[in-house]
């Protein structure tokens, strides 16, 4: 029996819009039969950070190590946001002194 993820992936692939079959600026996603990162992002309802993690993880272009570092950078930011939401931490503006409630954003 297919999992929910397998079913979602199959639905996405069968309903690829014409824009997913084209690629601007290279062919680093074409090896996946037209499946673009945005198709997966939309199917799973990923946010901006999660979408960029996926994009840099999937692409095969240029410097692989640099792409993995970009992926890790977005993961670190996503972890920061999730921890802030979970623990009620409010990020502080790094350009202001750490004194007073006016410096909380």
Summarize this structure briefly.
55% of the residues lie in helices and 0% in strands. By secondary structure, it is an all-alpha fold. α1 (4-14) crosses α3.
If you had to describe this structure to a student in words, what would you say it looks like?
The chain has one domain (4-93). 9% of the residues are buried. By secondary structure, it is mostly helical. It has five helices and no strands. Helix 1 crosses helix 3. It has helices spanning 4-14, 18-21, 37-44, 48-58, 64-87.
Annotation keywords:
105 residues; mainly alpha; 55% helix; flat
- Radius of gyration, taken over Cα atoms and rounded to an integer in Å: 18 Å
Low-confidence stretches: 100-105
Give the number of helices. Answer: 5
Average pLDDT for all residues: 74
Helix-strand category:
mainly alpha
Query: What is the overall shape?
Result: flat
The biggest beta sheet, please?
A: none
Number of strands: 0
SSE ordering: HHHHH
In helices, the fraction of residues equals 55-70%
Strand content is: under 5%
Q: How many angstroms does the end-to-end distance come to?
A: 48 Å
- When the domains are counted, the total is 1
């Amino acid at each position: 029996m297919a999992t929910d993820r397998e079913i979602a992936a199959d639905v996405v692939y069968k309903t690829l819009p014409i824009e997913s079959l084209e690629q601007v600026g290279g062919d680093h996603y074409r090896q996946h039969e037209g499946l673009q990162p945005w198709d997966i992002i939309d199917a799973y309802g990923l946010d901006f950070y999660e979408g960029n993690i996926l994009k840099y993880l999937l692409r095969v272009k240029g410097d692989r190590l640099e792409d993995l570092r970009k992926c890790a950078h977005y993961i670190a930011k996503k972890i920061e946001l999730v921890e802030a939401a979970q623990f009620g931490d409010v990020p502080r503006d790094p350009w202001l002194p750490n004194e007073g409630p006016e410096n909380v954003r």
